[in-house]
Amino acid sequence: AQSVTQLDSQVPVFEEAPVELRCNYSSSVSVYLFWYVQYPNQGLQLLLKYLSGSTLVKGINGFEAEFNKSQTSFHLRKPSVHISDTAEYFCAVSDRNGGFKTIFGAGTRLFVKA
Amino acid sequence: DGGITQSPKYLFRKEGQNVTLSCEQNLNHDAMYWYRQDPGQGLRLIYYSQIVNDFQKGDIAEGYSVSREKKESFPLTVTSAQKNPTAFYLCASSMREWDEQFFGPGTRLTVL
User: Fold this and answer.
1) Which of A13, A53, B32, B111 is the most exposed place for a label (fewest CB within 10 A)?
2) What is the maximal distance between C-alpha atoms in chain B?
3) pLDDT of B59-81, one tens digit each?
């Protein structure tokens, strides 16, 4: 069965520094990959998604992610973070073998310090 | 504006009571989902529905029930059989089951 691992539960970083949030998944057969952001006491909103095509995906708010099939990874990056990026970030995967049910990672809390 | 609404935002329940959480979408999506979120545990799927009048159990369906009588609506009932119902509940919908999900603002349920 598909599984999603977000390797860091919390990532503290200073404002204007780069950040990478890591995500690995277990199966590489026909996967679709997503990153969502959740601000406190709100629902999730989509940052970016990979369905096919270019392995480098650009999303909203200056975020991007790279699909690496050989390493089964989909890490999220931003070259310069802002205080307003403080939030929880979720990686999600759906695949044909799992009946396209979407599996979410446990989340990574990004804390941007001034 | 198209989107998903959940009500109420906050809900308090006494032990032994059933409560129903509302979820409505006007995105014309076929698939709808209910998730439970606890601190440090991410999202856990309670129930999902791919079409009207049909739904399937997710990973933690015990103590919950749903209905899907209309495409736009997918209410969740938290029954007295749910032993630890205090949590943040999120409803979502998607056009296709493998595609991005659109989330509501959530309902925070507290059992007193």
Assistant:
1) A53
2) 38
3) 999 999 999 999 999 999 999 88
